Amino acid sequence: MLGELRRFKAAGDPFTPEFFAAFQAVYLEHLAMLGKLRQRKRRLDGRIRSVRAWRRVSGLVFVATFAALLVCSVVAAAIAAPPIAAALAAAASLPVGSVGKWVDSLLKQYQDALHGHKEVVSAMQVGTFIAIEDLGARRSSGGSSRLHG
């Protein structure tokens, strides 16, 4: 064991200025990556808020349209319109409800995909943060790990 330490010491100091320059470059790249991940997460949060609002708005629009068509069919029946007109108005209101559910399902799928992307970015953010902390600890202890003999 002592012989291995002597050979290591005889090989020279592994912590050359080039090593520290490369180490600093890696550290700075990780910091830049963390900033980019934070920015991407903020953008995803904005998109998720936007999709949530669009889901509410589309739901209100389709409910209002469905109700309006239903009211029109009742009014048409009340003023003694021919039964065919009343049936057509009632039949027209049914596809509106289906389309509303379809649009909501599309927006929900998009929202779920955005949540998935956000989870991936959060995991990458945690990993990058841990790497930065580890690099910072190694950088602060790098000079003191030299062998003295």
From TrEMBL:
<keyword id="KW-1133">Transmembrane helix</keyword>
<keyword id="KW-0472">Membrane</keyword>
<dbReference type="GO" id="GO:0016020">
    <property type="term" value="C:membrane"/>
</dbReference>
<feature type="transmembrane region" description="Helical">
    <location>
        <begin position="57"/>
        <end position="78"/>
    </location>
</feature>
<keyword id="KW-0812">Transmembrane</keyword>
<dbReference type="Pfam" id="PF05055">
    <property type="entry name" value="DUF677"/>
</dbReference>
<comment type="similarity">
    <text>Belongs to the UPF0496 family.</text>
</comment>
<protein>
    <submittedName>
        <fullName>Uncharacterized protein</fullName>
    </submittedName>
</protein>
<dbReference type="InterPro" id="IPR007749">
    <property type="entry name" value="DUF677"/>
</dbReference>
<feature type="transmembrane region" description="Helical">
    <location>
        <begin position="20"/>
        <end position="37"/>
    </location>
</feature>
